[in-house]
Amino acid sequence: MEVVQREYEALRPQFSAFCGCDTCRGDVLVFALNRLSPHYVSTRQGEILTELSLASDQEKAKLSVILLEGFRKVGMAPRCGAKPAHIV
Ligand SMILES: [Zn+2]
């Protein structure tokens, strides 16, 4: 989902300790997508993009929080074998 990827790229520079390889990146994105409200994930992709691009600031803030949690979780146990990064 484009909006989630864009937000990921925006937040990524804050976490220099985070691996950020394709595996870790994918894990954070999937984590975020799975946690977005069912309202978004249950619709077809075209509708998801529309919904999210029109999303309120509150929804965007929620997305950031979910992504931060994803960075933390994936960073603590990267599946790629990178050194775990503790992200606060
Ligand atoms: Zn990695």
Which keywords apply here?
binds zinc ion, mainly alpha, single chain
Molecular structure report:
This protein is mainly alpha-helical. It has one domain (2-76). It has helices at residues 2-11, 22-35, 38-41, 45-53, 57-76. The structure holds zinc ion.
Number of strands: 0
Number of helices: 5
Determine the strand fraction and express it as a percent band: under 5%
Q: Please identify the structural class as seen in this structure.
A: mainly alpha
Largest sheet: none
Mean pLDDT: 81
Bound small molecules, deduplicated: zinc ion
Shape: globular
N→C terminal distance = 26 Å
Itemize the secondary structure elements and their pairings.
Elements (H helix, E strand, L loop, with lengths): L1 H10 L10 H14 L2 H4 L3 H9 L3 H20 L12
Zinc ion binds next to helix 2.
Condensed summary:
The protein has 88 residues and is mainly α.
